[in-house]
Specification:
By secondary structure, the protein is α+β, with helices and mostly antiparallel strands. The chain has 11 helices and 19 strands. Helix 5 packs across helix 6. Keywords: Hydrolase, Plasmid.
Length: 544
């Protein structure tokens, strides 16, 4: 019979596990070399039990859960665990053999030993901004594919494997430094977990973990039970600069008692572009929706997954099969999350936001005139969050599955040979409503002292984020090119020294009738430049 612990002990150990993963994430950011990790926080950390079940995840990037779940399953199902010793560290990124969701996200996965036996696993993941000027027709064009392999054996780095990986990277000095940061994060996690097992013993920690999983399941089932039984569906066209055609995405959510079925059967086939998702990425999206709508305080572990089932046809854009490209899987993930929110809006109107921004990616690469080395500046930029019932949307933020920050202008200009000419919120980009949608971002940059390749693009260029309950849609994303710049072809173009290119992200949808917005709030928005006089007069009905 499993050991039964008192609630206080379970809570103490649960908080300790949460502290371990948060500390791992912070250590990774502080030790990393690249701006994408140390400034934007495009990384995550997690702890798994010996069966590969998630027992704690840091509150960083929700979409990273897909890669973390994937590598745990891949390693445990394909490895003879009797050959694993203390200090072994697995590395992987491949979407089809390594458990990843796209190749830039590289995972470090390491066992925790106590009294000579594996008692848990720690993992961290970081987005490596490296693979540029590559195609996206299939995954072989997107970068080096790494199945789960041992980069360290008994604490000793396998130099031949590291050399092979770095040879396939375009900024190897950055990669090896970030690998060291990931290793440091895992080492910290192992030490903290070993201290936990030393203090409480393996039986107590394992029992507490099992009870935490059960607790999360009960919370999820209780929340689902509060939703009226029924089938809730939503379909919407999706656009992205990666693919010329509009795709009609669909989701149906069936609530039966304390269980929820998410059905994506109507989604179109996978495409020869980088916007496809593998199934673990789809799982991460569903788990994010359930956790945020049911109860954000639900512990981030595999327990609440038990109340959910997901159906998606293999070979579709939401459950791609090899060799589909997956680089921009975040485009579809953001839209699907908004669609799941919209499907449940009729019964959860007080919790659901209007449509939110996508992810506009801005990538510039070239030879740095300061040191003669190749560089890659890559940033996924947020925009406006959708408004909610009684709340305006947040301005200039990442939303839903990405949740990363920006690279500050000071850090960008000091680390790259680039100049930021404009970085601002975009007037009238937030969808009008009784509660206004969040505003988009404009960032205009230019290379200094050299010629550079620029890559700009993302979703919501033709179809905006929708409003709810009479709210207007948000502003569209777009690219702005300065004089003399060659038009972008397939998202790529050249920038000469001093030429400017800007990415304008998308705004969030509004909530409610704009004419019902508080007059003082309209005047404040006008005074602060958030809306124009024309919008204040013609859309909000303000007597100017």
């Amino acid at each position: 019979m499993p050991m039964k612990l008192d609630p206080i002990t379970v809570e103490v150990i649960g908080n300790a596990l949460s502290t371990v993963v948060e500390e791992m994430g912070r250590a990774l950011m502080r030790a990393s070399y690249s701006a994408n990790i140390k400034e934007r926080g495009d990384c995550s950390a997690a702890v798994f039990d010996t069966r590969g079940r998630l027992i704690a995840q840091a509150q960083q990037i929700p979409l990273h859960m897909g890669s973390l779940l994937g590598i745990a399953e891949a390693v445990l199902s394909r490895t003879d665990l009797s050959t694993v010793v203390e200090g072994d560290v697995f590395i992987g990124n491949d979407a089809y053999t390594g458990g990843g969701t796209h190749l830039n996200d590289i995972v470090f996965f390491e066992p925790v030993f106590a009294q000579g036996a594996i008692v848990a696993w720690v993992a961290n993941i970081a987005h490596h901004s490296d693979f540029v000027d590559r195609g996206h027709a299939h995954i072989f064009q997107e970068g080096p594919r790494i199945p789960p392999i041992r980069l360290y054996r008994a604490g000793v780095i396998q130099q031949d494997i590291l050399d092979f990986l770095l040879l396939n990277c375009q900024v190897p000095e950055e990669r090896v430094s970030d690998f060291r940061a990931q290793m440091a994060s895992n080492r910290l996690g192992v030490q903290r977990m070993q201290a936990l097992y030393t203090r409480y013993g393996a039986a107590t920690v394992d029992a507490a973990s099992a009870q935490l999983l059960d607790y999360s399941e009960r919370m999820a089932r209780a929340g689902i039970s509060a939703i009226p039984d029924g089938r809730y569906a939503f379909s919407h066209d999706f656009d992205t600069s990666l693919w010329p055609e509009l795709l009609n995405l669909s989701v149906a959510i069936e609530i039966k008692g304390d269980e929820a079925l998410f059905d994506f059967t109507g989604c179109p086939p996978q495409t020869r572009s980088g916007m496809n998702m593998v199934f673990t990425a789809l799982q991460a999206c569903v788990y994010f929706v359930v956790k945020t709508l049911i109860d954000p305080a639900t512990p981030a572990n595999a327990g609440f997954h038990r109340a959910l089932s997901i159906t998606a046809p293999a070979g579709s854009v939401v459950n791609a099969t090899a060799p589909a490209a997956v680089y921009s899987r975040h485009d579809i993930s953001q839209r699907l999350i908004d669609m799941m929110f919209a499907a449940l809006a009729p019964v959860l109107a007080d919790r659901v936001p209007a449509g939110s921004t996508g992810v506009t990616v801005q990538t510039v690469s070239g030879t740095n005139p300061r040191n003669g080395k190749f560089y890659v500046y890559n940033e996924s930029m947020g925009g406006g969050m959708g408004a909610r019932q009684r709340l305006d949307g947040l301005d200039g933020v990442h939303v839903n599955s990405t949740n990363s920050a920006n690279i500050p202008v000071e850090a960008l200009e000091s680390e790259y040979p680039l100049s930021v000419d404009v970085y601002e919120l975009v007037q009238d980009s937030g969808g009008a409503g009784q509660y206004r949608g969040g505003m988009a971002i404009r960032r205009r940059i230019s290379p200094t002292g050299h010629q550079a390749t620029v890559n700009l693009g993302g979703p919501l260029n033709r179809i905006p984020a929708w409003g709810l309950d009479g709210g207007a849609p948000g502003g569209l994303a777009r690219i702005e090119l300065g004089e003399g710049v060659k038009p972008l072809s397939a998202r790529n173009g050249m920038l000469e020294d001093g030429q400017k290119a800007a990415a304008v992200t998308s705004g969030g949808g509004g909530f409610g009738d704009p004419r019902q917005r508080d007059r003082d709030l309209v005047r404040r928005d006008l005074r602060e430049g958030r809306i124009s006089e024309a919008a204040a007069r013609d859309i909000y009905g303000l007597d100017i």
